[in-house]
């Protein structure tokens, strides 16, 4: 008998030239919420990489593509046991074109569909669903959306096609959640979490992102969309001298064997508010992404004043990578303990802070109202610590615990009540149901009164 209830597990199927944001945002956001997430690719093992693609709207008749980050896999495809996972994510990009021809991939999808486990598919990921539907009822009559060019394939596969009104559109049909593109991540992730048996709320918090040209791509998209996915959380993004609807170009900073990080063009990030119209006092917290933007933003007096407002008021501030250049320039690091990208150590120490070594590079720290991280690999910690400062408590999204057939219902209830006491008695009532094979399953209802 295990001593603790394990978190639910999510599987992400990747391939070369998977869309960059469509794999990393769900991968890191779900981890930040406390789930266990494995990313795999056929023919690849733990530690291998998948090359990704950046897809952005262009002035031409279709989107453009450029190279994205290198995405590191954390599990081996040939070793996974589909029955050990509670949900599946299919990112888009070009990878689904060839993954849809892989029988092992299609068998995985059919397992999740037959088991009625949650499936979230984005953009071109629905090509895999269509291929699986050729020999199963994965899509038969199900409401599905996708990137518009995928529509004819889904219709031919028997789906009930929902034309996306915008690229942020999502469709939900039972355990199947589909999105038109990465612009729909927030809604897609929110529905996926709900399908896993939980609700993540933002407690009506208002969070401001301080953006600039060539901020790091992941370092704005991942935290922004992770916070957007929280029900009731209001998120704004601003940039000096830009207005609502304007975009900031982003930079892809990666580690590719050189003496410093490489840079490639990233997505265009759309701003949601006018910088000079914002009322800082109406926001509960501030996020500062890294990249190259902080170098010039730290010279802007209006930016300095904005950052000083949040720090002086002791509101939660989260800054990552090179974002700490702005904190140093604002004179708000004196007496603080923080980390940053190692090259920014000089700024941190000259700003009067105690340097905390980011070893490993994904390590993040909280000191009072300030959360700092060294680089985007630390996003799960970075976001989780920031949510804690905001007072947002994430639900315990636990997998069911398998009990032996010999254990009686009374013994089962005794074990669960013991766990309730250890968790402080905050776990709602427990339902014991009979599962297949003559085994007893304990379903611990950790979110409200919802039965699984």
Give the helices and strands, then pairings:
Layout: E1 9-13, E2 18-19, H1 20-32, E3 36-40, E4 49-56, E5 64-72, E6 87-90, H2 95-99, H3 103-114, E7 119-122, H4 126-133, E8 143-144, H5 151-156, E9 160-161, E10 170-173, E11 176-179, H6 185-195, E12 206-210, E13 215-216, H7 217-228, E14 234-238, E15 247-254, E16 262-270, E17 285-288, H8 293-297, H9 301-312, E18 317-320, H10 324-329, E19 337-338, H11 345-350, E20 354-355, E21 364-367, E22 370-373, H12 379-390, E23 401-403, H13 409-422, E24 430-434, E25 440-444
Helix pairs in contact: 1-7, 1-12, 3-4, 6-7
InterPro entries: C56_PfpI-like (IPR006286), Class_I_gatase-like (IPR029062), DJ-1/PfpI (IPR002818)
Domain DJ-1/PfpI: 8-185, 205-387
Pfam families: DJ-1_PfpI
Describe this structure in words.
The chain is of the alpha/beta class and 452 residues long. The protein folds into three domains: 9-195, Rossmann fold (3-Layer(aba) Sandwich); 206-390, Class I glutamine amidotransferase (GATase) domain (Rossmann fold, 3-Layer(aba) Sandwich); 401-444, no CATH class. Helices cover 27% and strands 25% of the residues. It has helices at residues 20-32, 95-99, 103-114, 126-133, 151-156, 185-195, 217-228, 293-297, 301-312, 324-329, 345-350, 379-390, 409-422, and strands at residues 9-13, 18-19, 36-40, 49-56, 64-72, 87-90, 119-122, 143-144, 160-161, 170-173, 176-179, 206-210, 215-216, 234-238, 247-254, 262-270, 285-288, 317-320, 337-338, 354-355, 364-367, 370-373, 401-403, 430-434, 440-444. The strands form seven sheets. The chain has a six-stranded mixed beta sheet with strand order 3-1-6-7-11-10, with helices on both faces. The chain has a six-stranded mixed beta sheet with strand order 14-12-17-18-22-21, with helices on both faces. Strands 2-4-5 form a three-stranded mixed beta sheet, covered by helices on one side. Strand 10 and strand 11 form a beta hairpin. Helix 1 (20-32) packs across helix 7 (217-228) and helix 6 crosses helix 7 (217-228). The protein is globular and about 65 Å long. The chain starts with 8 loop residues before the first strand and ends in an 8-residue tail after the last strand. InterPro entries: C56_PfpI-like, Class_I_gatase-like, DJ-1/PfpI. Residues 8-185, 205-387 form the DJ-1/PfpI domain. Pfam families: DJ-1_PfpI. Belongs to the peptidase C56 family. This is DJ-1/PfpI domain-containing protein.
């Amino acid at each position: 008998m295990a001593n603790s209830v394990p978190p639910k597990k999510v599987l992400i199927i990747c391939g070369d030239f998977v869309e960059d944001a469509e794999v990393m945002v769900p991968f890191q956001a779900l981890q930040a919420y406390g789930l266990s997430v494995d990313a795999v690719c056929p023919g690849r093992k733990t530690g291998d990489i998948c090359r990704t693609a950046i897809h952005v709207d262009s002035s031409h008749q279709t989107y453009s593509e450029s190279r994205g980050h290198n995405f590191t896999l954390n599990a081996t495809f040939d070793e996974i046991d589909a029955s050990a996972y509670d949900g599946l994510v299919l990112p888009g990009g070009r990878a689904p074109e060839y993954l849809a021809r892989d029988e092992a991939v299609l068998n995985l999808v059919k397992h999740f569909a037959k088991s009625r486990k949650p499936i979230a598919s984005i953009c071109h990921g629905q090509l895999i669903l269509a291929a699986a539907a050729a020999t199963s009822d994965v899509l038969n009559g199900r409401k599905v959306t996708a990137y518009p060019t995928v529509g004819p394939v889904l219709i031919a596969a028997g789906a009930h096609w929902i034309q996306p009104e915008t690229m942020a559109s999502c469709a939900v049909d039972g355990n199947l959640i589909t999105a038109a593109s990465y612009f729909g991540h927030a809604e897609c992730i929110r529905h996926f979490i709900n399908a896993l048996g939980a609700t993540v709320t933002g407690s009506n918090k208002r969070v401001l992102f301080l953006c600039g040209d060539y901020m790091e791509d992941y370092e704005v998209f991942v935290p922004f969309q992770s916070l957007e996915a929280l029900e009731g959380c209001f998120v704004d993004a601003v940039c000096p001298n830009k207005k609502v609807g304007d975009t900031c170009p982003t930079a892809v900073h990666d580690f590719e064997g050189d003496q410093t990080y490489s840079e490639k063009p990233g997505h265009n990030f759309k701003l949601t508010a006018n910088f000079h119209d914002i009322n800082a006092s109406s926001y509960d917290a501030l996020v500062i992404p890294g990249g190259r933007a902080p170098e010039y933003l730290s010279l802007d007096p209006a930016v300095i004043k904005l950052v000083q407002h949040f720090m002086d008021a002791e509101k939660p501030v989260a800054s990552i990578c090179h974002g700490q250049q702005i904190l140093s320039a604002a004179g708000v690091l004196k007496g603080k303990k923080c980390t940053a990208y190692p090259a920014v150590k000089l700024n941190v120490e000259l700003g009067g802070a105690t340097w905390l070594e980011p070893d490993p590079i994904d390590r993040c720290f909280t000191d009072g109202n300030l959360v700092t991280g060294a680089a985007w690999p630390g996003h799960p910690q970075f976001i989780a610590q920031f949510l804690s400062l905001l007072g947002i408590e994430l639900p315990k999204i636990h997998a069911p615990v398998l009990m032996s057939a010999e254990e009686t219902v009374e013994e089962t209830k005794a074990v669960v009540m013991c766990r309730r006491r250890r968790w402080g008695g905050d776990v709602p009532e427990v339902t014991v149901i009979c599962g297949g094979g003559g085994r007893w399953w304990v379903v611990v209802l950790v979110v409200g009164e919802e039965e699984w």
